[in-house]
Amino acid sequence: xxxxxxxxxxxxxxxxxxxxxxxxxxxxxxxxxxxxxxxxxxxxxxxxxxxxxxxxxxxxxxxxxxxxxxxxxxxxxxxxxxxxxxxxxxxxxxxxxxxxxxxxxxxxxxxxxxxxxxxxxxxxxxxxxxxxxxxxxxxxxxxxxxxxxxxxxxxxxxxxxxxxxxxxxxxxxxxxxxxxxxxxxxxxxxxxxxxxxxxxxxxxxxxxxxxxxxxxxxxxxxxxxxxxxxxxxxxxxxxxxxxxxxxxxxxxxxxxxxxxxxxxxxxxxxxxxxxxxxxxxxxxxxxxxxxxxxxxxxxxxxxxxxxxxxxxxxxxxxxxxxxxxxxxxxx
Length: 331
Ligand SMILES: [Zn+2]
Hints:
Blueprint: E1 8-11, E2 14-17, E3 30-34, E4 39-43, H1 49-60, E5 68-73, H2 79-82, E6 93-97, H3 98-104, H4 110-119, H5 125-134, E7 149-151, E8 154-159, E9 162-168, E10 178-182, E11 187-195, H6 213-225, E12 230-235, H7 241-263, H8 268-278, H9 290-301, H10 310-323
Parallel strand pairs: 4-5, 5-6, 6-7, 11-12
Antiparallel strand pairs: 1-2, 2-3, 3-4, 8-9, 9-10, 10-11
Helix pairs in contact: 4-5, 5-10, 6-7, 7-8, 7-9, 8-9, 9-10
This protein binds zinc ion.
């Protein structure tokens, strides 16, 4: 069961909405930026309507009289960071990279995913996996709100009196990631180039769709280069710079092992099975996600021009999770 605690204040005018627990597919961190003049913005949105309405209700308690959430900054176009935008009234400006706009067409639409999750056969690995991990969400009446302001490179915004710098990243977690940095508060929202873990919140293995991992690592280094002291990952607990450096070491290990296994002729799916068996990071959940991240890395090593077939890689991931289902704890 997911519960939502009140918003946490990270810095002056910067607040965090984070589901508890934060582990599991689709439970992303979202930010609220409030300027003293009443202008406000979200950084990312929850995955479905129920959670987004909760975030909206809690956000309103922090707005000055007459305040409004006039913008949504979308760190990337995975549904768990964008699909909740439909609950915001008054047609907010939705800001994303140009490539994130293109990514929307690649991902299943919300109603399509809803039908797959709730209409799939639970006796098959994919049907079982989707129901188990996505069955808590409801997109039966959700439409994607498309970005209305897109950019490449860098974009300086002001949320009322609060400056926000956006940095578009080369292909990393998806094609179209960005970092949102608040220089006055030294807070960075990184989206899913970081999946964090901490002592009280062990977190999950990352899943990277676009890659390669070298560019995910470069994206983490770009986060550090902003000078941020408070770093809000896409999922998991808020970090300081040292936590980002620890995450870079995880990514380097995964990249190096994937390259070794590739160089010895091990196929991608078996390489992921080998990495899961090695269990180098035993506290992290959703080890089967390495199926996708390793497949992504192999695509780059083999010079593939196209992105993955999302349902095909999810079916491989579900197959590996199915093989391990007696070893994982039930929800
Ligand atoms: Zn995410």
